[in-house]
Amino acid sequence: MSNSFSREAFNKVPIIGIMRNIPPAHVEMLVSRYHQCGFTTLEVTMNSEGAAKTISYLSEFYTDRLNVGAGTVLTLEDLDEALEAGASFIVTPVINEEVIKMCVARNIPVFPGAYTPTEIYKAWKLGASMVKVFPATRLGADFIKEVLAPMNFLRLVPTGGVGINTITDFFKAGAAGVGMGSSLFPTKLIETEQWEELGKHFSSLLNTYREFREHFA
Question: Which domains does the chain show, CATH number per domain?
Answer without folding.
Answer: 7-212 (3.20.20.70)
